[in-house]
Amino acid sequence: MTPRVKICCISSIEEARLAIRHGASALGLVAEMPSGPGVIDDGLIAEIAARIPPPVASFLLTSRTDADAIAEHVRNCRTSTVQLVDAVAPAVYTRLRRELPSLKIVQVIHVIDDDSVAEARALAKTVDALLLDSGNPALQVKELGGTGRVHDWSLSRRIVEEADCPVFLAGGLRSDNVAAAIREVAPFGLDLCSSVRTDNKLDTEKLRAFFDSVNAA
Fold it and tell me: Which ranges of the chain have pLDDT less than 50?
């Protein structure tokens, strides 16, 4: 099965349309973060999300960890999916399910070591999907995504095999390595941002090259 592709760091309605034309199944809209690219304000996120046609999913990337704050963020931005880029307490998932029953919840796992595999396995039945990225939440200024780094795909493969939910792979994916990523990890979906951009804008040729590589793989 060809993996779904999520294009992240969408910054305008025009970028959303461009990504969809090239085959994106989901679009990532990045809210306030401690670090990383693509941040836009909540008003623009809501404006773009309102123009994304079904069945393309709209992902709100939030660094909030409190259930009330996350729920408020989603209500303000009106996306179909929330991508939790930081760890949250177990009760947060329960609260979000109760207050926003139609919301899809995607939890980011920053793949570092065997503990990351255990974390993913434990959360798999709680969320709708996992997204494996290359951040480092332990730093003084947290890295919660958008690093452009490739992590250890052997750990990601273990998560795909052991986690009972769809898994997206992120972190340094490019047209020249995505075929290897698909072979080695076999993810449900792929997530990328900087590798299909030039001067921080979506690049038609880079998008085409990436989707050609995915389809060929």
Answer: none
Distance (Å, whole) CA 37 – CA 135 = 13
CA distance 192 to 37: 12
Question: 1: helix, coil or strand?
Answer: coil
The pTM for the full model equals 0.94
- Beta strands (DSSP E) in the chain are 4-7, 26-30, 57-62, 81-84, 104-110, 129-133, 167-169, 189-192, 197-198, 201-202
Q: Regarding the domain with residue range 4-216, which homologous superfamily does it belong to in the CATH classification?
A: Aldolase class I (3.20.20.70)
pLDDT digits (tens, 9 = 90+) for 183-208: 999 999 999 999 999 999 999 999 99
115 backbone dihedrals φ, ψ, rounded to 5°: -60, -30
In this predicted structure, what is the pLDDT of residue 35? 79
Question: What tokens appear for 195 in the block?
Answer: 């590798």
Q: Which residue has the tokens 């796992």?
A: 109
